[in-house]
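Q: What residues go here?
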């Protein structure tokens, strides 16, 4: 769809005003960058508090996601500190005028087949071609530049990345690209170049840098790796695993990674750790079907540790049977040894000793 020239000119003027307002805001408020550092520091502290709480409550499933969130906050905190340092030591950047920004938007139109402007939502939008990474089709993405965010977040946060034909990760449908979660882009090494492009009004360069991140895979910092893209999250530890590394528990029917699975010592059925119980005699893991309640002691024992009484037929622990194979109830009462009185010393019963002459 062709964008009218009048709309382009009007938008260029609005964008120029945004850049000018941001410059005035920074000029009026010298500690602006330092407040940016504090903002990211508070967000990082909040995420750390959530991690401590999850550890305290034993919430293992959410730990991987919290760790990724903290890594993101750490990176933003580091970049905010670097920006604050740069602002304090470098001169101001020349502001782009309406004419420059008009040329920038025309350049975006030339670089992207799908380009549009939404004045009500205050965004400039361009769509990529379908993205394929390591033979995984992720579909096309819309790159949305929200210009009012530039006032307070002059970085990659100004962009939303919207999957137009979503093929999200199997374990988390909020991750539509290894570097996109909840429409937010983790730009990695491109974070600083994108920020500098926006500061200088090089809007077309910023769009191309974002597209480059979407078209390339960085295995060092994905939300979910491409190797696990079509995998499943372990029901116990939450780790995402591929089809070759996961098993279905025969007891509860959920999927688990190999580390969270075991086998019944009796029937060898596959079970998760939560569905395996311990034999109270040998302490081996067993499924519930292979444990029996023993008469008398009430212990839950596996078939290797139980037997049937030869007389009454009840199931008892082997250790509770005598050599004849009888349970405690069927064993004949034992007869105690007859009690013999203890010999006592009686001086009158001793023979008289002859008198000594």
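A:
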């Amino acid at each position: 769809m062709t964008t009218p020239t009048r709309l382009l000119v009007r938008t260029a003027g609005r964008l120029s005003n945004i850049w000018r307002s941001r410059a005035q805001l920074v000029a009026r408020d010298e500690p602006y960058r330092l407040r940016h550092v504090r903002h990211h520091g508070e967000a990082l502290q909040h995420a750390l508090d959530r991690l401590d709480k999850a550890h305290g409550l034993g919430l293992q499933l959410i730990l991987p996601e919290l760790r990724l969130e903290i890594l993101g906050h750490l990176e933003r905190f580091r970049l905010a500190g670097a920006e604050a340092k740069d602002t304090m030591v470098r001169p101001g950047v020349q502001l782009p005028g309406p004419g420059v920004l008009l040329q920038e938007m025309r350049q975006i139109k030339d670089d992207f087949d799908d380009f549009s402007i939404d004045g009500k939502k205050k965004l400039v939008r361009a769509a990529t071609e379908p993205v394929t990474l390591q033979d995984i089709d992720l579909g096309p993405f819309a790159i949305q530049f929200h210009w009012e965010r530039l006032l307070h977040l002059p970085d990659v946060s100004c962009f939303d990345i919207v999957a137009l034909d979503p093929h999200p990760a199997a374990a988390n449908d909020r991750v539509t690209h290894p570097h996109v979660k909840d429409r937010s882009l983790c730009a990695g090494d491109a974070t600083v170049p994108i920020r500098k492009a926006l500061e200088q009004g090089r809007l077309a360069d910023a769009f191309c840098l974002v597209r480059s991140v979407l078209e390339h895979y960085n295995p060092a910092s994905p939300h979910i790796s491409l190797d696990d893209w079509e995998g499943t999250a372990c029901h116990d530890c939450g780790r995402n695993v591929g089809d070759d590394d996961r098993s279905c528990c025969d007891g509860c029917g959920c999927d688990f990674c190999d580390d969270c699975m075991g086998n019944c010592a009796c029937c060898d059925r596959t079970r998760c750790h939560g569905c395996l119980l311990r034999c109270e005699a040998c302490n081996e893991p067993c499924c519930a079907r292979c444990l029996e309640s023993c008469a008398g002691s009430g212990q839950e024992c596996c078939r290797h540790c139980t037997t049937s009484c030869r007389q009454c037929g009840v199931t008892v622990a082997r250790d509770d049977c005598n050599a004849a194979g009888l349970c405690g109830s069927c064993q004949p009462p034992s007869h105690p040894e007859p009690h013999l009185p203890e010999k006592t010393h009686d001086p009158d019963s001793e023979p008289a000793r002859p008198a000594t002459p």
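A: Context that may help when evaluating the design: The chain has a mean pLDDT of 85. The CA atoms of residues 30 and 76 lie 20 Å apart.
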